[in-house]
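Entry 14. Structure prediction run on the chain below.
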Amino acid sequence: MSEMNIPPKAVIDTRALSKEYVMGEMVVRALREVSISIMNGEFVAIMGPSGSGKSTFMNMIGCLDRPSGGEYYLDGREVSRLGDNELAEIRNKYIGFVFQTFNLLPRTTAVKNVELPLLYGGVKNRTELAKSALERVGLAQRMDHKPNELSGGQQQRVAIARAIVTDPVLVLGDEPTGNLDTRTSFEIMALFQELNRAGKTVVIVTHEEDIAHHCNRVIRFRDGRVERDEKVENPTDAREELAKLPPVEQPVATA
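Output returned:
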């Protein structure tokens, strides 16, 4: 079979995935037999109202929690029955996380923040790889700055560099633009689109319809089930959206 005829591989494959929480005498069914396949190279938005199950689903596919029932295959490996140490290793090796609140160490430089996953993985050439990741997200001139010396958008870029420094098969974003203004949100989505075009599988949770339409596919949850799963025919190009915004006003120099 020629390379062009090889079908894409599922990075995420859930089969009747369920999650129940016992709260006193009440059982909360957060996920109800969710079966989803996300293929290598897709860019997917997960949406839904509060309590719909989208955050629980993100925790499951990020190996941050275990299902009550069903199976989860990550890059072809069944991971839903693994122990804590094995899950931690999977998270470090296969998954890059980007959070709404950045989760950077405040007294540590950008390059040292990006080195952290490599430190946990025992990688030796950490600084070289961290600098390369920061260059990839456009922060070559900010490597030695601490988070309080960076804008919100720059902090999120550091978080994205940290997420991709291990070359994961999957990048997960939990409301990655939730704390950012419009321009900075478009800049971050442009960066995600660039990563996706370079071959990364990207999945984000978002409440914002305009952010979701930068993706190629939108999966909507309600009451623990998939309500809709739809392709986005013409995803919004974040670079084009940036070009439409008025120019940033520069501070007036004083004598």
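The chain has a mean pLDDT of 92.
Filed with the rest of this week's runs.
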